[in-house]
Amino acid sequence: MVVQSMTNTRTSDLPTTVAQIRALQAAGCELVRVAVPDMESARAIAKIKREVTVPIAADIHYDPRLAFAALEAGADKLRLNPGNIRDPGKIREIAARAAEKEVPIRVGVNAGSLDARFLKGGEVTPEGMVEASLWEISLLEGVGFRDVVVSLKAAEVGLTVEANRLLAREGDWPLHLGITEPGPDLEGIVKSAVGIGIMLVEGVGDTIRVSLPGDPVREVEAAWEILKALGLRERGPSFVVCPTCGRTGIDIPGIAAEIRRRLSHVAEPLTIAVMGCPVNGLEEVKRADYGILGGKGYGTIYVQGEVARAKVPEHKLVEEFLGVLRGEREGKMGRVNEFQNGS
Description:
Elements: E1 2-6, H1 14-26, E2 31-35, H2 39-51, E3 56-60, H3 64-72, E4 77-80, H4 88-101, E5 105-110, H5 126-142, E6 148-153, H6 157-170, E7 176-177, H7 185-201, E8 207-208, H8 217-229, E9 237-241, H9 252-262, E10 270-275, H10 278-287, E11 290-294, E12 298-303, E13 306-313, H11 317-333
Parallel strand pairs: 1-2, 1-8, 2-3, 3-4, 4-5, 5-6, 7-8, 9-10, 10-11
Antiparallel strand pairs: 11-12, 12-13
C-alpha cells in the first residue's frame, strides 16, 4: 500500500518544490505528484529528479504535449484525465511513448471533470465513472500498454466507494484511492478516513492519497494514520490515549500532545499509552511498548509492561518519559539522534 501526495507549489519554482518534496518524503510519502500546467513545469521535472529520490508523477490535463515533455524529462509516472484529454489518437501516442520509457499511466477519473458522454441523465454516477475509465483503459490496452493504474474519485464518499467497487469487478488493475475535495481540516480527514477505510477493509485499493487543502505533509500524516488504524502498515508512534473523565488527575491531552510533538520525526513503530486512571489504564500501559499511568498530580512510567519510574510529578512527566524512552531505545538499538527533542 503506497502512500502518495501532491505538491501545491509552482512546479517550475525549483527551490520551493524541491523543499516541499523533501518534507513529504521525510513524512513518509512514497510517490509525489506534481502539477504540469505548462512546458516550463514539464521540463522542471528533470531538475527536480536530480534533487530528490522519491518517484515523481506528472499530473497532465488538457494538453497531450505536456505528457510527452514530462516523459522526456524523466517522470516516473503519468496521470491522464479522460475528462479533458479525449483524442483517442493522442492517448495511443502517449501510451506508445510511455511504453518506450517503461512508465506507468494512471487513468484518473474525477467526478468534477467527467466527460459529458458518461453522464447519466446529466448526473455523475458510479456507472458513468467506471465507463469513463474503461474507455481510456481500452485505448491503452488496445496498443498493448498494460502498465495501468486507475483512480475513481469524487467528493462524496458513497459515490467514490461504489464506483471503485464496480471497477474492481471489471478487472484487476491497481487502484489508487482517495476522496477528492473532501473539505478542510476535520471534515476532510473524516470523509477521507471513512471512504478510504471502507474500500481498504473490502480489499479494494493499492495506493492512497488523502486530499487536503494546505500543507500536503498533513495528507501524508493522515494517510499513515488510516493505514495504522487498519493494521495494514506501521510507521512511527501509535497512541492509546485516555478520553478523560472526572477521575483524571493529570493533563492527559496536553501530555499526549507534547509527547507526540516531540516524537514527530520518529519512523520506528512504537505504541505509547497515556492513561488517566487505573480503570482501563493499568492494562493499556502494560500492553503498550511505553506508557504513562496517571494519578492525582503524578504519573507512573511503564516500559514493556513494567514500572520504570514511579510517581513522577506531573510537571516532570514529559521529560522523564522521553528520557526513559530515549535511554531504553538507545541501549537496545543505538538510535541516538532519532529521539532528540523535536522543534
